[in-house]
Amino acid sequence: MSKLDLNSLLEQLELTKKVELSFSRIDEDVMMALNALTVKALSMRDSLFILNSMITIIRELVENAEKANAKRVFFRKRGKNIHDAHDYAEIMREYEGKIKEMVRNIEADLEQSGFIVSVIFRFENGNLVIEVGNNIELLEDEKRRILTRMKMGEKSSHFLDIYGKIQDSSEGGGVGIVLVFFMLKNIGVAPSALQLVARDNFTSMQLRLPESFKPVEITTEIKRRILNDVKGIPTFPETIERLIAMCDDENTSIECIAEEIEKDPAITADVVRLSNSAGFISGKRIYNVADAVKTVGLKNVRALLLVCSARKIIDTRYKKFEEIWEHCNRVSAYSRYLAHEYHLLSRFENIAIAGLLHDLGMIVLLSTDINLVKSIASLTRDKKLINSTILEEVYIGLSHSTLGGIIARRWNFPDYLIEAIQHHHSPFDASTEFHDVVYAVYLANMLVGIEEKKYEYYFIENAVLKRFKLDGYGKIQKYHKHIIDTFSEEST
Q1: Distance in Å from the first CA to the final CA of the chain
Q2: Homologous superfamily assigned to 221-491
Q3: Which CATH number describes the domain made up of 3-209?
Q4: Cα distance between residue 484 and residue 323, in whole Å
Q5: What is the mean pLDDT of residues 375-394?
Q6: Phi/psi at 431 (nearest 5 deg)?
Q7: Would you put residue 472 in left (φ > 0), alpha (ψ -120 to 50) or beta?
Q8: How confident is the model at residue 173 (pLDDT cuts 50, 70, 90)?
Q9: What are the residue ranges spanned by the domains of the chain?
Q10: How far is the C-alpha of 319 from the C-alpha of 78, rounded, in Å?
Q11: Rounded to an integer, what distance in angstroms lies between the CA atom of residue 106 and that of residue 92?
């Protein structure tokens, strides 16, 4: 799809005209276009707070439609009749648990098949209608499976209660449609808003989003346990509070602060170590507190003290997860590069701190129930979801980013830091005045996540890429290589 085509579609949508995007197979251009159209449609309704959920829902419906098309193409290639019960059973037995592999193997045939997937956005009687369909007629078996899962999703209260009952290897897992219903309930949209519509040689899932709706609060036992535990997280010790106050006092000299820090060996070691971390690296090795204070400056020393205390409390109270801190260290460095190269430093001198602390909530979740969090991470990767927060909200009723925001408020972190921690997966939800810092941490986190095989480039919100003049695959991939090289050079 050309950029001009997308711009035209966005302009039509802006005029509240019906917009239709049709394609034979899903690729990165299609995903980017769907993201952009979803952002535009929701922004017109002042509903960007449900963006991640809606993109996930649309992608799930689109992939289901593509799989249905691919199945028909595969039957053709094998010379089998999909309407013949014997042929159908034989082929589905052969490809049990391998639907995704089937789709990958026939991508070229899909383009020549005449089967298409169609996504329509339109406004009708106050509703935003999103319809995902394909030019096929459903088999009775397919229709039965879909309706069964829709009913399960509509009737069930908690996703964990039915997760083990909906595994279906013959049709690619069977989890998606049920998950869609839970996501709708999570954002406050009635399950009845999603309907299966079958016409001659065309089948679609039609979603009607009302003008107003309110996200519901999901309460689970694990959520109650986490929130009660977080209430008991201690505040910062008096020593740290006193040092932070000294950093805020214009009449306190650098020498006095350095002397005070040196009275506590543990704080001294933490400050020196963090001064040499990727978020603050200055081109020379720092060996003592005096050099650290002089090199990074008082504002950054204050920020270092916040990180030292936060890490100590979290690691003492919860399990240590060094891989999370390593991830945060890299995100911190990338945030610093973005802040420097795009001139954000004048407003957010401590943007690297946001990177270092953005995943506070993830450590708490992992410490509470590591097996549950691993299951969420596995399903996130399997379904190619934008991030894990949507499933955390469905499973637990609380995402790691929201949890991190709760902890940050308890510790009286500055507003920019609270916003970056709470919205590092949902940048559009951040207050406008903090968009720059949140966008930088969001983009840094996405790039590190791509390196960790969690995300794809097309997951990145286009508005964020535009803010950094990186929209387009060539630009963002080139910049990503640049910061990987910079990080590697600084780390040697």
Answers
A1: 42
A2: Hypothetical protein af1432 (1.10.3210.10)
A3: 3.30.565.10
A4: 18
A5: 82
A6: -60, 145
A7: left
A8: very low
A9: 3-209, 221-491
A10: 53
A11: 16
